[in-house]
Design a protein that fits this description.
2 copies of one chain form a homodimer. Chain A has about 350 residues and is α/β, with parallel strands linked by helices. Helix content of chain A is about 40%, strand content about 15%. Chain A has 14 helices and 11 strands. Chains A, B: It catalyses: 3 propionate 3-nitronate + 3 O2 + H2O = 3 3-oxopropanoate + 2 nitrate + nitrite + H2O2 + 3 H(+).
Amino acid sequence: MLMNLVTNLLKIEHPIIQAPMAGGITTSELVAAVSNSGGLGMIGAGYMTPDQIREQIREIKQLTSKPIGINLFVPNKFDANEDKAKSANQLLNPIREKLNLPPKNHMEHPSFHDALEKYAEQIKVVIEEKVPICSFTFGLPSKSVVAELKQHHMVLMGTATTVKEAIEVEKSGMDMVVAQGSEAGGHRGSFMNDEQDNLVGLMSLIPQVADNVTIPVIAAGGIMDGRGLAASICLGAQAVQMGTAFLTCIESGAHQVHKEAILHAFEDETIVTRSFSGKPARGLINPFILSMQDNEKDLPEFPVQNALTQDIRKASGLQNKKDYMSLWSGQSPRLSKNQRVKTLIESIISDVKNTIGKQ
Amino acid sequence: MLMNLVTNLLKIEHPIIQAPMAGGITTSELVAAVSNSGGLGMIGAGYMTPDQIREQIREIKQLTSKPIGINLFVPNKFDANEDKAKSANQLLNPIREKLNLPPKNHMEHPSFHDALEKYAEQIKVVIEEKVPICSFTFGLPSKSVVAELKQHHMVLMGTATTVKEAIEVEKSGMDMVVAQGSEAGGHRGSFMNDEQDNLVGLMSLIPQVADNVTIPVIAAGGIMDGRGLAASICLGAQAVQMGTAFLTCIESGAHQVHKEAILHAFEDETIVTRSFSGKPARGLINPFILSMQDNEKDLPEFPVQNALTQDIRKASGLQNKKDYMSLWSGQSPRLSKNQRVKTLIESIISDVKNTIGKQ
């Protein structure tokens, strides 16, 4: 059951993909450890500059000769509403005060044009550095980008949170689709609707997606161990993508406070919020989220809100205060461990073999 | 894998339980067909009078000699706020007008005392009629009730939506716990918190519950076929409870309009709403839910709101208008079929055997 089209296409031993978590979590050590352990390590490059990407790819190549992947954000048009940014700053300034940060009353953010340019540069680097696998979030690459990447024999993955999105992912020429369930931590990969109140759980999402696409399905959301991998395969997936399980690993670059928070959290202590970035994402409930909750619908869009909260997230991290950090987590924190990547992957594989063996 | 503690305790052939859907769905034909096919048929008796319960049990006994189960609602104290009821009626009257119903400006509902009395009578009937299995929703029976039912050798099940609730279910003396994931249609069984925005998906819920209780776990939510049963067992459950999959069966008493709506719905077209009953429940999005959405938090509690919307739901059904009916559904409507119960159960079992066989 563990060798299939996905492991063949990705040229990996185990159908385990490390989710490309953005924001410094996917250190070279993490990515290399996953690939060296037979899974697929992935760089969460959404926020990275082309130079940073090039540097990290080269660093990882010193650590592993196995395939690695990279994830990019597809830029979306957005409404840079000054009034919304002003209102958001009014909510954020009392938090800035608590962190000894100066108040802000302006809005600084990359323009859509800047984002498109950066994205084009990111793609150029990925091709030049010969990364064999590329996944996309928040949308789908254009036909010309897909054609270019295919010319370089890259394996492409898209992210979908509904059947409709999965069908679009297939139509766009992606080789496989990551079906992201409601359980997943971090940003929702939704690109056809931004709803927060009808997120579909994996038990429902995987079989319905699998019935409606012909490309392989990768399950993402709340999967932490062999039970989750075995269940995903029963439901019709061919591999899993795991974020939180790798985030708390020793090799991950997540802030220690973030790791500790997950290691001590319960399954019902996460929520989907737009308050950090302007896009819905699941994280542990903390004072930041609660303080923004009543005004969530009026917050600026991504990446404006993301730019507005940047100083707060950074200062909160530097001061080791979990109250104002984005503590992204899926819904299975009770299953998280602080262990080496190799231990995690080996235990998943041995558990799956036991699970199947017992039946 | 398919014979285990749950099938032994319940004395059934297959680990498949038909969810005890209240409100006329669990006809005697449905319950008997499930039990006759080797699963456990259950009466959704929450809203039924003791006499109706007695009558239905006797009717089912004419149709099957296999074990059946019954579900009761544990009464909760509630706040019968006149102002809230008035505001709710103001929202409901325009809908009443569309259905040619007279406006209402008063509140009529059973008192907590009435509910307790009815519950005591329901239990008496269940014992007298020797129903071997009883499950509870919205709370847990008292120690004295548990002791009495145990004296009659009944197998007891509680419902939990979080690990904390599952631990309480075990502590209360229940023999097994139904872990209800966010995917589930109909009422949330939550009894320790009423949140709607941190519902836990089954991929996360089952293993975390299984790790924290010693009684067997039954998975509920979005499970429709052999893939869901196999996955649930991989995750640590010993059986599944399926609602929507049975609701669209030929033998179910659900309104034809309700069945048709599910048969044509997509996975992202459901939402959790308090608007019909005052308690959160998942159903297909329709004009009724949308019209109440902005005022959801201010609606009266269960059972006040349930009593207030009764005329509307009834008239909408009689007029075959799905716009104002409660179209309860889980998140897997694309997997629903209009078929005989026997066909459904046989296909689940054969699919599970294939799934496991292939691995």
